[in-house]
Amino acid sequence: MQGGDVQPVYTTDGEQLFRQESYLHYLFGVNEDGFWGALDVRNGRSMLFMPRLPASYGVWMGVIQGPDYYKAKYAVDEVVYVDDMAGVLAAAGAPCIHLLSGTNTDSGTEVQPPSFEGSDTLTLETATLFREINEARVHKTPGEIVLMKYVNHLGSRAHVAMMQGCKPGMMEYQAESIFRHFTYSKGGCRNQGYTCIAASGSNGAVLHYGHGGAPNDAQMREGGLVLFDMGCEYYRYGSDITCSWPVNGKFTPQQALLYNAVLDAHRSVIAAMAPGVSWPELHSLAYRKILGGLAAGGLLQGDVEEMIAAEVGGLFMPHGLGHLIGIDTHDVGGYGDGFPERIQRPGYKSLRTARQLEAGMIITVEPGCYFNPVLLLPAFEDPVHSKFLVKEAIQPFMAMGGVRIEDNVVVTETGSLSLTDVPRTVKEIEAVMAGAHWPFAGVRDTPVEQTQNSIAGVAAVPGIAVD
């Protein structure tokens, strides 16, 4: 298995900050670039192959360590240099060498089997490893859940810090800087797992706002909503948390209507999660709750099941309900041989898995409702959709942007457990933005001792000990 190499910044001699290739990190946890790894599946013997560095490395990058150092650091059985790798593998006498080869179903990127000097003298096999290691990564170990608990605890606290620092007139990037500073200064998280989304007002309807062309640079205005989707990364494991709240700390009736429809979907999905439950069915449940909430508020008319059949759900929530998460934000294993194929329907086609839930999975639950003119303006003129849309009631919401609520949830043997712990109800958010400490018992709608979150509930995960 080949690890990552440092990548230049385009054609310059500058370097991007190195982050280890996910598969090598999963098996070996190596932080340094230029490493390879091998695991003998016959006996569990582990080997790392390190680069032979020139003496000048010590001047620019620090002390050059040898094989014994890395053998102790990464608790492997043997470390040798990469230029000796072919000989060591041949001497192992294995029937074949399994190499990674496959396609990432989120990005569509092909994982090409690595080649190395002397590989042509070995028997190589490329059909097995990718599938097997993906499936292993789908089911998190107790140690992985501890890491995910940590980044959720830290990310949750950082979201609360943004809530309490949010004021009309601030720039979106100022809120982002609160999150980045908190997670690095308080928890050692040098990286985020993905580009921070700090969207205010109508920007909240742009699903991946925050990119280079829209770099969280708008001013947060009095009376507006924000949608902040940010997660921190520690030792390559990341959280992915989204919160939505009013800039001034007080929900308007319209904002509360929208927020509570999404919150109903969020809580209903988590309550329904258990091994054997279909993820697409939970996506439908989220649609049912959101569309029902909009109908109750007078924005939609007609039968909710007919709306779902007519793909009205995809107009308001065009993304999937959530994704597997771990080392990668969109973690591997969502699709593959032997699992359900992608559903080609609006909204459903964006699901990053169509599998049934299984114990040990960690998956995001992130229902949302957005007023995006790219989707809604044509729908007002479409006879299939327009009969459900109350245009005059929807129009006042068009500048609101949207609401998304996202937790990272472990599937347990009997149900599910959210690792995320942030204010979620309207009452909780308003209290925290007014200065109340979080977590707290006095205003919280569910008593702390009954919650299932990163503080009180993670002990319910088999194999996890909480101090």
What this model shows, in words?
- The chain has 467 residues and is α+β, with helices and mostly antiparallel strands.
- It has 15 helices and 18 strands.
- The protein has helices spanning 22-28, 57-60, 67-73, 85-91, 129-138, 142-165, 172-187, 253-272, 279-296, 304-309, 313-316, 373-381, 383-386, 391-394, 426-433; strands spanning 36-40, 45-50, 78-81, 97-98, 102-103, 110-111, 124-125, 191-192, 197-200, 225-230, 232-234, 237-238, 241-246, 362-365, 368-370, 402-404, 407-411, 416-418.
- Strands 1-2-3 form a three-stranded mixed beta sheet. Strands 8-11-12 form a three-stranded antiparallel beta sheet, covered by helices on one side.
- It is globular and about 75 Å long.
- The two termini are 36 Å apart.
- The model is unreliable at 446-467 (pLDDT under 50).
Short structural description:
This protein has helices at residues 22-28, 57-60, 67-73, 85-91, 129-138, 142-165, 172-187, 253-272, 279-296, 304-309, 313-316, 373-381, 383-386, 391-394, 426-433, and strands at 36-40, 45-50, 78-81, 97-98, 102-103, 110-111, 124-125, 191-192, 197-200, 225-230, 232-234, 237-238, 241-246, 362-365, 368-370, 402-404, 407-411, 416-418. The chain is of the alpha+beta class and 467 residues long.
